[in-house]
Amino acid sequence: YRDRQCSGLQFVSPYAFEAMQKVDVVRLAALSDPELRLLLPCLVRMALCAPADQSQSWAQDKKLILRLLSGVEAVNSIVALLSVDFHALEQDASKEQQLRHKLGGGSGESILVSQLQHGLTLEFEHSDSPRRLRLVLSELLAIMNKVSESNGEFFLKSSELFESPVYLEEAADVLCILQAELPSLLPIVDVAEALLHVKNGAWFLCLLVANVPDSFNEVCRGLIKNGERQDEESVGGRRRTEALRHLCKMNPSQALRVRGMVVEECHLPGLGVALTLDHTKNESSDDGVSDLVCFVSGLLLGTNAKVRTWFGTFIRNGQQVRQSLNELLLKVDFAVNLGHPCFLGALLSSPLTRQFNFTLQVLRSVFQIVIKPSSLSRMKTIFTQEIFTEQVVTAHAVRVPVTGSLSANITGFLPIHCIYQLLRSRSFTKHKVSIKDWIYRQLCETTTPLHPQLLPLIDVYINSILTPASKSNPEATNQPVTEQEILNVFQGLTGGENTRPTQRYSITAQLLVLYYVLSYEEALLANTKILAAMQRKPKSYSSALMDQIPIKYLIRQAQGLQQELGGLHSALLRLLATNYPHLCIVEDWICEEQITGTDALLRRMLLTTIAKNHSPKQLQEAFSMLPGNHTQLMQILEHLTLLSAGELIPYAEVLTSNMNCLLNAGVPRRILQTVNKLWMVLNTVMPRRLWVMTVNALQPSVKIVRQQKYTQNDLMIDPLIVLRCDQRVHRSPPLMDITLHMLNGYLLASKAYLNAHLKETAEQDIRPSQNNAMGPETPEVTREELKNALLAAQDSAAVQILLEICLPTEEEKTHSSSTYSLLKSVQSTTGPKSSDVEEEEDSLLCNLREVQCLICCLLHQMYIADPNIVKLVHFQVWFIFAIQLLSFLCIQYALPKSLSVARLAINVMGTLLTVLTQSKRYAFFMPTLPCLVSFCQAFPPLYEDIMSLLIQIGQVCASDVATQTRDFDPIITRLQQLKERPNEVSGLCKDSPYKSCSRDITSVDPDVQLCQCVESTIIEIINMSVSGV
């Protein structure tokens, strides 16, 4: 039970009460004005009355108190109250008490107060201090007399003086002064007892005790001693319990002592339980339940029979309350069966139910008495099967208005909670009720801070779209949000920050819709196999839609709202890292920190007005003046660097479309660097659209063939399109930096695209696997290997193209044969040069060297990210070195892994034999054939494969020279004999013609020399195998 009449009043805090109890002036000075106002009666008396303590420390404290009171206006009225003649007031009060005793407590003539002309409140307002004292004293004495004559029966006295909210503080001041100055006439325990019978009595009682803190235990014991044995049986007992709880909240250190008084007096058992609950809550200890068990078990199992009987009665009364509740439920059931649902609501909200709340709380939390579900089974059946069936609830739920401006600040049970539970139980799909529009409207009506139920709602909604409610009805799913509805949310956003006022939806709604789209696509890919097995293919959002959503811009906005968005920002980053890795490049995040850092912010505070005066049309005109006039373009570009990323978006198309003009001779390097800087800033908000425009702008200008306009999808399928740009880009470091950035991004995007494509076409694996004897895993492994091979070929091709770009062109070779000679010529002081030639050579050297540094940085990043690229490139580019290195490693580490790599090398050599030309065949096999001897020495099982390879090499060489001469046939014959009868010829190798022939490499024909080298290699392998080396 709670005294709702005191709910709006401020009580004395435990901190303030402790300060008063210890007379801690420092703590009193730290109190706020409202808290200090409640303690003024005691503080004013303390400052004005002669103290018993004459020490120097108290003198200093008294000065601080006076200084504390000097600025409070209400002090003057309290000083006036203390100036009254209390001796005469006490005599008049005594006479009135005697008069009332003779008249039997009637309300006749009053000595303290003459005939009132107006109401008590109005008289109090117009009275001076002495009369105010008399008015309050007369009213209080009247209540005390009535209490003494009531014989324990509780009553509630209506008094304007104690009920008017305007004069509560003044009446409390008068009450405290009266009790302090007339203690014999107004004993504090009797005054406390009287205050229980008026409105706001608990508040007056707390203020009275706070101004006389030493009386706390006396007041509590008196109230408990005068209380009922069972406090739940009457309104008076509940008011007494509530007043004592307020006192214990004001002085929590004495709560357990007051509980001991309750047990000692065997009164107010509900108070003892309530104080135990309050103490457990305040202490917030882990053993709170054990404290409750100890208290209750100590009462019920103790040796004091009086206490056991008293508390046992309290429990039995609680059981009677439970029976009353059951009867109430039967009445409700009866009312529903009679068809009176209106009476149901009235009955559930009757005062009788409110009276049971406290007892039920005690029963459930302390004694853990749980109402059996069986007693409510009939009620549950009526509600769920007859009145509010699942179909009725779902049909009504979609018509419930969404919560406007939904945020975490809106607490309580909201419609979104109901929709979430119905979605989880698949009620909407079972009864074919469309919930899509409601969810869309609710997502649009959101704001910060983010409500915690929104993300779970989106997840369960996506699940209800993709997976049917039951296998028997695979079509029972919700409908996804349409693409047009998604685009409406982002309308007006792609224009940059300057169009923000035209946005219709909040950033919270846009981020939630983005989270929905990304989560939907991820869930769709994750469940492709299951959906294919069920022969279902839900609609996927098109790539055109994804291209129109400014994902990076929204993520950047969410980064600044992480506190308000809860876990939404981290969830979006997870989805991006999985599905859009090209938008999560670490280099981009570092660049973004530099762009949005303090230095950039300080620069943008300068000349921002001038920078915004330039339009995209003016920028286009400045580009058209190149290469003759570059001053105006440089000025506009410098001013654009002061704009933020969002404000630069309108200039993106003009900036990228004119990049081809920057490749002409005579364009200053500063313009190129500024364009690179602006491009990097735009890359933080619109990377995908920017990359497509840049790739199309940097295409080689071919007048005969019409240039193809690539799309985002084209570039993800074939990232090497980025490197098919104008050759002049390869010697322009600022533009090459942009190209490498796009290449790295599209390589990552291509991997994500192929992974997604593999999952999207997973149903192709299920169909053949049904009749596949090798099991369903075989197609998956094959397609996965093909994808990995394609990605490896793609990465290695990019690496090899970049390595070729690092090589000097013919023009660069004319100036210097190598980098070493260039550096040596620069360092040499002999041989003077003309300044023009030296400047041109330095320019070529600087551009080439800078491009090489940029490419090498990217290659190192690729190698670190995937070390297998290094191995692949070595085998594709440096065949000879790789095979020679492998031969030494096989001798040193004859391991199973080395055997597999050696077998791979032999297969590669056999493949290259069929594709290499005569000159390349000679250059490749002459240094690698001796390595085959090491392979045989390390791994004898490779003998047959190596001998077959050697014979094939000899036959290919013989076929090339067969049209010229037949002298080669004897060598082929000898090779065949060496392979078929190695043991017969092994003993003759040292002195036989084989040795002389193998060493006779006098022919200038490369095929003849290679064939003789093959013969020498075979002989060496045979000698090694026969000798047992």
TrEMBL record:
What GO CC annotations are associated with the protein?
A: integrator complex
Q: Which GO terms describe its biological process?
A: snRNA 3'-end processing
Q: Which Pfam families match?
A: INTS2 (PF14750)
Report the family membership.
Belongs to the Integrator subunit 2 family.
The alphabetized UniProt keywords are:
Nucleus
State the name under which the record lists this protein: Integrator complex subunit 2
Main localisation: nucleus
Annotated compartments: Nucleus
Q: What is the lineage of its organism?
A: Eukaryota, Metazoa, Chordata, Craniata, Vertebrata
